[in-house]
Specification:
The protein is of the alpha/beta class. The protein is about 40% helix and about 20% strand. It folds into two domains: about 160 residues, Periplasmic binding protein-like II (D-Maltodextrin-Binding Protein, domain 2), CATH 3.40.190.10; about 170 residues, 3-Layer(aba) Sandwich (D-Maltodextrin-Binding Protein, domain 2), CATH 3.40.190.
Length: about 350
């Protein structure tokens, strides 16, 4: 693959001089799911453009957006990666710190998969199975009681009598929110528990949702604050462990992991692109527009990230597992024209 070299524009040089920016590299932080994609792009960018290789850090979507919203200037990051959309409360925090010009960039789609040791038992999950396995409390006889399920067989008689040992993303990860909403909450509704909880709490729907998504803390479910490599290490140390991963990470570790179906669908780039796999989500990064033309390479890196060469269906991100965005041309146009959120 060949790329055309580009250089810092005269306007950017002028703005850099005026603002007395001390650094000359793009700084990015956020989602551990987006991290490998961003790292691939950053390496290629550094090799093919006249800019330093961007610095890419992980830490989770929430942590990255928190840093992004700390303000404008050289001591703050330029771009935040996220495996979920930015929240209104985060936009408000950004505004309070002077970060009012934000460009939202959707890079493609990913699936959340459920994988276990390659030599262990296989599973055919539904959201209901995960709700019954991980809910902190379950409705019974008109009251909420502590979840007594300790094995997958007690959740679903079709499953092996294997102890429940789940490793799920910690609360700072965007993947956790998608997992709670698209798996746990949907499982709560599908099982009929939501209707019972509404009866118990007098019809407070918001409170019922919170109750549904409350995860047990008795050791059967373990929050992983690190990235997927930590989840993999936990499974390698616990033959009964089942972890929550991004599709791309699983596809790069098929020699160690086996993946479960969800609602009868095998997670693949094809099933996600077709909209068949139920636990998929868009991936994003957010650009601090006020840093464009001030910190060298911010816009150029963003344009390169969503270029056909990188994010297209035949690019290296797709080879790693990203499902290319069907509306990629629109995304490219929004980056090129610096279209701000809310404008």
């Amino acid at each position: 693959m060949s790329f055309q070299k580009t250089t810092v524009s005269a306007l950017a040089i002028s703005l850099i001089s005026t603002a007395a920016i001390a650094r000359d590299n793009v700084q990015v932080a956020g989602s551990s799911t987006v991290l490998p994609y961003a790292a691939i792009v950053a390496e290629a960018f550094g090799e093919n453009f006249d800019f330093p290789t961007p610095v890419i850090e992980s830490g989770g979507s929430s942590a990255g957006l928190k840093r992004f919203c700390e303000g404008v200037g050289e001591k703050t990051i330029d771009i935040a990666n996220a495996s979920r959309a930015i929240k209104e409360k985060e936009i408000k925090k950004c505004a309070e710190a002077g970060v009012t010009n934000i460009i939202e960039v959707r890079i493609g789609y990913d699936g959340i998969v459920f994988a276990s040791d390659i030599n262990g038992n296989g599973f055919t999950f539904t959201p209901q199975d995960w709700y019954l396995a991980l809910a902190a409390e379950l409705p019974k006889d008109g009251a909420m009681v502590v979840n007594q399920n300790t094995s997958w067989a007690s959740v679903n008689t079709a499953f092996a009598d294997q102890p429940i040992s789940a490793f799920i993303p910690g609360t700072k990860h965007g993947t956790r929110e998608v997992f709670e909403e698209k798996v746990i909450l949907e499982g709560c509704e599908a099982s009929g528990a939501m209707a019972q909880i509404l009866e118990i709490n007098g019809g407070d729907h918001d409170a019922a949702e919170s109750t549904c998504m409350a995860i047990r803390t008795d050791g059967r479910s373990v929050d992983i604050d690190g990235d997927y490599t930590e989840t993999l290490a936990r499974i390698q140390a616990d033959a009964n462990g089942i972890g929550v991963f991004g599709l791309a990470f699983y596809e790069n570790n098929t020699d160690k992991l086996q993946v479960a179906t969800m609602s009868g669908v095998v997670p693949t780039t094809e099933s996600i692109a077709a909209g068949d796999y139920p636990v998929s989500r868009p991936l994003y990064f957010y650009i601090k527009a006020d840093h464009i033309g001030v910190v060298p390479g911010v816009k150029e890196f963003a344009e390169f990230f969503v270029s056909d060469d990188m994010a297209g269906p035949d690019g290296p991100l797709a080879e790693y597992g990203l499902v290319s965005d069907p509306a990629l041309a629109e995304v490219q146009g929004a980056v090129m024209n610096e279209v701000l959120m809310g404008k």
